[in-house]
Amino acid sequence: MTTNLIQFPRLGLELEIDRVAFTLGGLNIYWYGLIIAAGLLLALAFAFHYAADFGVDADRLVDVVLVGTVCAIVCARAYYVAFAPFQYDSIWDMINLRDGGIAIYGAVIGAAVFGGLACRWRGVPILPTFDLVAMGFLIGQGMGRWGNFFNQEAFGTNTNSLFGMYSRATHEYLTWWQDDLAAQGVMVDPSMPVHPTFLYESIWCFVGFFALWAFLKKRRYNGQIALLYAVWYGAGRFWIEGLRTDSLLIPGLGLRVSQVVALVCVVAGLALLAVLGRKHKGVPFQVQLAVSGGALKQARAAGLTDAQIASIAGKLPVGASHAAFAAQTAQIAQTNWAARAAALAEENAPAEESAPEAGQQETAEE
């Protein structure tokens, strides 16, 4: 049965929700997958729109995103399977995502590791890309949590709060796991409303996104946005995870995996923010403008070094408008690299010719 009657007693709301959005060729298409996909598309739209503001070439970013997304999904599922409180019957059950079962921190780790490697492969600056992707993650996570609502998962313990939620799915889950939860010291009443932790996390992510968006033009170094994301999301996930009844646990320790990871992210992130904040204090931050893949090939074919290419592309103050970044990036794409290389060679020629004469004169004087 895919339909749930979801109630918010104190709000006086009752919603009958079907997990299946529609059927295509006899195959059920679930809201969970559609919402995750929508969150991903919104994150990608933001990333490609603001790529120039971070000095990232949108064309090469496509390859990084493709590698990072695929590996993020694989790692998110692997993370969940590794810590799931039950055994899977087959490899097919392990890879079946249609009923949910992915871990966000697994996705973040996968995207960071394999996305970082893809950046090296495609010659995309890693830290600016991490800043850009971090904001995309907040969009995707804030949107994606609503997939948990349709699946009626990722909820918390009992509550009498205004947003307390009850459904047949919450009742069945808590009834099934009641003894196990009691063994962990978590007492629940299946007939009572529960914390809609998916809602808390969604709100937390969207607030974080808009806060970082407002800070975008005030950042002082590459990687700062990514660190702020790690701290913000980690802090929220730590307290929200403590409310949940379906947390993944570290075997033998009984600690909630996501709480441990979140705590590490918060502590490490705050430490790095403090150190790097002192290092870059009072230093104006300028963004190195991106050169597209095609233009980069032309520039190197003309004999220019990467340092010369970066110097010709130039920089803009971080506070410059998005329109300024877009216009300057478009202008770089129209650069005649062969002509610029010839001009540089001509500028350096007199200095190169005068050097031997100076050496000869010095020898003669000796």
Characterise this structure.
- This protein is mostly helical.
- It has two domains: 277 residues, no CATH class; 80 residues, no CATH class.
- The chain has 13 helices and seven strands.
- The chain has a three-stranded antiparallel beta sheet with strand order 2-1-5. It has a two-stranded antiparallel ribbon with strand order 3-4.
- Strand 1 and strand 2 form a beta hairpin.
- Helix 7 packs antiparallel against helix 8.
- The longest helix is centred in the last third of the chain and has 29 residues.
- It starts with a strand and ends with a helix.
- The C terminus is likely disordered.
- Main sheet record: 3 strands, antiparallel
Strand content: 5-15%
Shape: elongated
Supply the number of structural domains: 2
Mean pLDDT: 90
* Helix content range: 55-70%
**Pairing-aware structural class of the strands and helices?**
mainly alpha
Oligomer: single chain
Radius of gyration from CA coordinates? 26 Å
Count the strands?
7
pLDDT under 50 segments (min length 5)?
Answer: 358-366
Instruction: Report how far the terminal alpha carbons are from each other.
Output: 98 Å
SS element count, helices: 13
Strand order, sheet with most strands: 2-1-5
Instruction: Give helix and strand order, one letter per element, not per position.
Output: EEEEHHHHHEHHHHEHHEHH
